[in-house]
Amino acid sequence: ISLGQFYIRRALRILPPFYLVLALAVVAAHWGVLPGGLLHGAVAAQALQLANYRIAVDGYQGMPAGTGVYWSLAVEEHFYLLFPLFFLLLQKNKLSRKSQASTLWLLCAAILAWRCVLVWWLHASPDRTGVATDTRVDSILFGCALAVHNNPALDGPSRISERTYKLVLLPASVALLAFTFVNRDPAFRETFRYSLQGLGLYVPMIVALRFPSWAPVRVLNYRPVAYVGVLSYSLYLAHHVVLNVVGLQITASPLPKACAALAISMLIAWAIHQLVEKPCAALRKKLSAAATGGAKVPWRPGHAVTT
């Protein structure tokens, strides 16, 4: 496990589209193409991967309209910075893959307990519990636990039958996810909701990877759908900015506006993919090849899956 290579790969994958969209949004806001104003401190917080804690303290004021989603990128960057060190610690202590997963589950439980303290004892705001890294990183750690133990992509056959997954566990998981959206109690939404959603996504993820030819899952592997997945990161960064531009600049009913925003967002995401993401991907491969002397590094279950 090479920390240097990991950080370089993550930086080249995430940061170029991140800063490009942020810069374009700042220019658009400065020219009045986007609604709202700008505050240097808010934009600086976004650029420094601190948008989530800025929002927790001061809200979204001063950020280019549509870039509020950058709070989630801040959570991811903090995770990418710290988790490799934590993972190496687990490896150093020679924990089994099952013990590693149990440790991650305990960490998820601790974060849930911390959210409960913030909501019920400290009366924290929804922004504090909803966007801060220390209250939301469990949404990523659930996936890490699945990656190191019972990984449906890399591990062997499951002890649970295909029939049980499809007819029992998957419907139960969908029902659980639906419940987290239907229940509008504020305290529930800022405490247990995030944990239950992490649990509810486990089985759909396993089913999608173990049974890719199953009809309800097969659609995810259709080429047009998969290509949307290829564009998804840049699409995520740009789509809300585009929605705000269209909302301000185009006079039309909601449906034509939505269609226009979708088409423009897809076009921008495609352009970023072609002009930024592909060259960066090529550079990542070149640097990885140089670091390994051109040798292909094998993927081994429980070892390289999380990095």
Helical segment tally? 15
- CA radius of gyration is 21 Å
What is the average per-residue confidence, as pLDDT, rounded to a whole number?
Answer: 93
State the distance separating the first and last CA atoms.
Answer: 8 Å
* Helix fraction bin: over 70%
Order of secondary-structure elements? HHHHHHHHHHHHHHH
Number of strands: 0
SSE map:
Layout: H1 3-30, H2 40-47, H3 51-58, H4 70-92, H5 97-121, H6 126-131, H7 133-136, H8 138-148, H9 162-182, H10 186-189, H11 192-200, H12 202-210, H13 215-218, H14 223-249, H15 254-291
Structure overview:
The chain is mainly alpha-helical. It is 73% helix and 0% strand. It has 15 helices and no strands. α3 packs across α4. The longest helix has 38 residues. The radius of gyration is 21 Å and the shape is globular. The protein starts with a helix and ends in a 16-residue tail after the last helix. The C terminus is likely disordered.
Give me some keywords for this one.
307 residues, mainly alpha, 15 helices, 0% strand
Q: What's the short version?
A:
By secondary structure, the chain is an all-alpha fold. Helices cover 73% and strands 0% of the residues.
